[in-house]
Amino acid sequence: MEIFKSNKIYNFMGSRLPFLGLSSLLVIASIVLLFTKGLNFGIDFEGGTIVQAKYEQKAPINDIRNILKDTKYNNASITEFGSPDEVVIRITGSSSNIANDIGDEMHQILKPTGDFEIRRVDIVGPKVGGELREKGIMALALSLIVILAYVSFRFEWRFAVASILALAHDIIIAMGAISLFSIEVNLDILAAILTILGYSLNDTIIVFDRIREGVQTSKESILEKVVNESVSKTLSRTTLTSLTTFFVVVTLYLFGGEIINGFAFTMLVGVIVGTYSSIFIAASFLVQLKFSIDDFRTKEANKLKRQKEKDKMRAMYEQGTM
Amino acid sequence: MKIFNYRLVIFALSIIFGVVFAIPSFLQTDSGKKISLGLDLQGGLHMRLGVNTHEAVISKIKTIATTVKYYADDEDLLIDGLSIDDESVNFTVLDKDEIPKMDEMLKQIKGLEVSKNDLSYTLILTADDIEKTKDSAVSQAVETIRNRLDQFGLAEPSVVRQGATDIVVELPGIKTQAEEKAARELISKPAKLELMEVDEERADQVYTLTRSQASEYGDIILEDTNDANRKYLVKEIPILNGSQVIDAQVAFDQGNQPIINFTLNSTGARIFGDFTGRSVGKRLAVVLDGKVYSAPNIRERIGGGSGQISGGFSTLEAGNVAIALRSGALPASVNLLEKRSVGPSLGADSIKASTIALVSGFLIVFVFMIVYYRRAGVIANIALITNIFIIISVMAMFGATLTLPGMAGIVLTVGMAVDANVIISERIRELLKAGNSVAKSIEDGYSNAMRAILDANVTTLLVAVILYAYGTGPIKGFAVTISIGILASMLTAILGTHGIYEALQGKISKDKDLKKWFGVS
């Protein structure tokens, strides 16, 4: 079975401006969303309390709301969680008392609403929340720096910049989607974003590797054509891997349970955007950055020449002619 | 034909390794190393606690004041105005001639800075000693909480220090909310037993004095444990501050009420004996965590260093108090910084959901690879299965815990580990179409694909390492599974499948049916 004929070359670069336009639109929309609607930070980063309770019957959300209205937890938000008999109560404050925490209090307060079991109590105090936020930002920043350094080292700086731009593109759009659908941002979402980072980079590197190979071996010397050749040749690989990952993430989204839902959703968006960007966007940046094939070939040729001269000298030296 | 090539041999060894070491985890046998489930999967309690280390410094100041008082009483030195505040002990020596004796005594207390103004003394702790006190307060709190939980009878409690002031407590296997609450109560109980002298001179003023007036006399007002309206006026500086308690056991009095018998060490016993001998007719307040449990009259000198706490405990309570006293007092109070508690039923649901996702995701990839690549797909799938076995084995060997994000990591690895095989197969197809021989296509396919696979894997690995370094708890689990998965895929997807192709190469060349082998016409 084959999806794409491997000898067909698609003219991706010919239509790169419309795609760059579409991407700019998506990125700008995402940024606007992030600044106006913002992210719905969960307790991991903001601090606060989550109490998850499972009722024997359908959860009486209205009763819970009414009872909490008269307590100090009147700003609590109550939502169904996964199934109609399960609810999550989110409270902005946290308690520092070990022996008697908000979970215990909820147990008392909610007694009149029916038979239930408290299945999860997460409390994050302000100190830990701040620390997690700090670590999260550090992780993201550090990942980008390390990637930049590695790709520069293995390829060339323009490849590195293009891949970072493509990554920024993917992450901003994924975060836009998180904001649009009001997904609660906790540590798992951060992990998902970092995974997207790795995954999308994977895709981009495979394409870039082909471009590097094309630059060295192709008879073409126009960058656009080499890029078209390379992207077309990796097309079936990119789509295939994306498809398998996509399938897996979809099953995770559908069957992984409510807790893993936000993670799976973010991954889903990331896989789609990441695949799109490595086919249509990453290499376009390379072309826009005016990567020059001739310069690269001259440099490579010089490198090779120097290596050959060295070898020749060594050979002469070993034969004793010098 | 190279049926036994080195790649195949390594692959075969890794299959054996993967299967053998994964067996204990799959069958959950009693012996052998196996993966343990994280708290989010098996249910349990995770807490991060902060130690209020400043309290330990105050309590040390108090102990110094107690020592000074005991020494002065013992040596018949006349001192006056012994008082403490947050950072210092203050007192005045009445007789000038006794100054050298007092100085000699103070020299024996380490980490003390003594300043004198004529006859009045001010004692403060050196900065170095304050640091040491804070540091040892945290280690002591870790030790104390660990002892208490060990005696509480839960399986595998873990108490670890984190950073300068924090402690992480993990309790797997908590079944009910009541059990969890009992454990939390036990952890947070200060269990500070103080024996204090009732101020008999002003005992009748206890209901009229304010706290600040009381403190002018060096007294504090404490409430009765059973009746908050009943108050006692006691000397601020305790006779004994609980650090001398070496044993505590539950017993029952004549009325069959639970009481706690405690035993003091030899220093404690001596101080207690001396005090009671001197104070016959006065009252002694038995104070636990700032509440008066009883205040019996001292009828005679009490030697032997034992005493009892009574005062309306339930049997369960008495048991927990005794555990707490035996394990030692918390040197300072602890408060909750973070808590994650997962009920066992939720954990079971999570295991079920993620297993379904894992199995169905796996099956889809499996079928897809065979449909698309035919026998090349089968070979890739062999590598994939081996990969999962290796992940499980390596995690079991290192005693790693499997968390929910870790499960997600394995699911993702399934999706990504086939990537290497997709890249290789695509390259082989390309070369075959260009008219190369089967042998050359396989050889060049692998070498052409290698550079891309390596670069891609290294970058993902770098991100995983950063995730591990900056992630907490469950996220670390995700990073671990991803990293092991990537490394294992080098062994299985690259080396392993290459070995299989090498062995089959002759057969494929003879067969000439490339559609059957690579799904290509």
Topology:
The complex is a heterodimer of chains A (322) and B (521).
Chain A: H1 16-36, E1 40-41, H2 43-46, E2 48-55, H3 61-69, E3 77-81, E4 83-91, H4 102-109, E5 116-124, H5 126-154, H6 157-180, E6 184-185, H7 187-217, H8 223-255, H9 261-288, H10 293-319
Parallel strand pairs in A: 1-6
Antiparallel strand pairs in A: 2-4, 2-5, 3-4
Chain B: H1 6-27, E1 36-37, H2 39-42, E2 44-51, H3 53-75, E3 79-84, E4 88-93, H4 99-107, E5 112-117, E6 120-125, H5 127-152, E7 158-162, E8 166-172, H6 177-188, E9 193-197, H7 211-216, E10 219-224, E11 231-235, E12 245-252, E13 258-264, H8 266-278, E14 284-288, E15 291-294, E16 306-309, H9 315-326, E17 334-342, H10 344-373, H11 375-397, E18 401-402, H12 404-433, H13 438-470, H14 474-511, H15 514-518
Parallel strand pairs in B: 1-18, 10-15
Antiparallel strand pairs in B: 2-8, 2-17, 3-4, 4-6, 5-6, 7-8, 9-14, 10-11, 12-13, 13-16, 14-15
